[in-house]
Amino acid sequence: MNLLVSYAFGKFDARKASVRWNYGSGFPFTPTAVFYGSVPFNGDINTNYANSNANLSTIFGNLNSNRLPDYARVDLSVTKTWRFDEHRSLELDLSVTNTLDRQNIFYFDRIRYERVNQLPLLPSARISYRF
Fold first, then answer.
1. Backbone phi and psi for residue 121, each to the nearest 5 degrees, phi listed first
2. Is 75 strand, coil or helix?
3. Complete DSSP assignment for 76-127
4. Are 68 and 106 in contact (CB under 8 A)?
5. Lowest mean pLDDT among 9-18, 45-54, 60-69
6. Which 8-state DSSP code applies to residue 62?
7. In this predicted model, what pLDDT tens digit does every residue of 69-80 receive, in sequence order?
């Protein structure tokens, strides 16, 4: 779900402020049941099981039986436009992504067994000249 509120003001609407709110329920995912080592067999009696590196294999749980946490984000931006004539203008935009610095999950790293999050609070600036 997205909600966008934008307000233009000033002479010729040269300034604009906007707030964007995103919300989404967590995506379903299949949990990991267990990891195990699988030693490759070369097909002969000389395979050295004591010194071989095992391949990491996974047994998964029930398909899509768990859900990731909900996702929510608020973005803010302010824009100022200077119009020089009918065709030329300069625009300055300052914005902040994920203003509340919410820890939204991107994915879960099964191997390292750790959560990987999306963008933190991220300020940005943009200058645009049109002609």
1. -60, 125
2. strand
3. EEEEEEEE-SSS-EEEEEEEEESTT----EEEEETTTTEEEE---SEEEEEE
4. no
5. 45-54
6. S
7. 999 999 999 999
